[in-house]
Structure formats: C-alpha cells, structure tokens
Specification:
globular; about 150 residues; Rossmann fold; five-stranded parallel β-sheet; about 35% helix; binds ligand CA2; alpha/beta
Length: about 150
Amino acid sequence: MPDTVHVLNGPNLNLLGTREPEVYGHATIADVEAACRAACARHRLDMVFRQSNHEGELVTFLQEARGSRGVVLNAAAYTHTSVAIADAIKAVGLIVVEVHLSNVFAREAFRHHSYVSPVARGVICGLGIEGYRLAIDALATAGGRIS
Ligand code: CA2
C-alpha cells in the first residue's frame, strides 16, 4: 500500500475535453488517467485513479487512501468550498499534492481561496495535465507521512 498513489478528481472533471478547451485543454479524463498511469509506472508505483461528482464520496476516497504513498487531489469546485474535504485530509494524515489544470489565480476571485492548500504538502496549478505528472514525481521522491 505505501507504494500506491491515489489520484482523486472532483466534480465535472469527467467532462474534460468536451467543453471550455481554452481553460482546461483538450485532454479527456481518460488521457489524464493514462498520463498518471505512465508516470506511476516509471516510478514503479501502483495507482488508484478515481473521479466523483459527490463531496461525500471524495471524503470516502480520501479515507480509503490511508496507508498509501500519497494523494494527487484535484477537488475541482470543492477546493473552494469544502471543509469536509479539508478535514478528511487532516484525518488521514497523508501527503496530498493539490493540482489544478488552470491557473486559478488568473481567474475569478472566488477561485483564489482553497480549503485544501493549508493541509496540502504542495500545490501545482496552471500547467494543465502536466501538473498531475509533476505531482506524482513529487510523491515518488517525498519520504514518509505528515505527522
Ligand atoms: O483548474 C482546475 O483544475 C479546477 O480545479 C477545475 C474546476 C474549477 O472549479 C476549479 O476552480 C479549478 C472545474 C472543473 C470543471 O471541469 C470542466 C471540464 C470540462 C468542461 C467544463 C468543466
């Protein structure tokens, strides 16, 4: 289990590649999964890749990531609203790398605040699908858990 990375995706990310390509690019969620799988394989890490449109389900996914190497989390809109997701990250005590495809700081003011960032090890935004790969590289080399 410590050799598994969980890649968790929040609401509407299942629609990637179908709308707003100027914001989110042309990659589909299947492309994101394939890129993550290749990155994990390079580091000989197993991967669990999940997407949900439901806040509580994302909380469950985080709880199920206990014991893993870490979590790459794009909580999508819940980033900006969810105390429950922040609490779950604290509760599981894992390394979480927060990822956003778009540069949230170049967008609307409501996207500038994240409930996830204060409980994340690091944050990557604005680099598109590449951000997921960078987050996996970071988890592959980051040692241990957050105590
Ligand atoms: O940039 C990101 O990755 C975001 O997490 C994406 C979220 C947004 O609420 C965050 O502020 C930033 C939105 C994901 C919605 O994805 C769509 C994909 C295709 C078409 C429409 C929405």
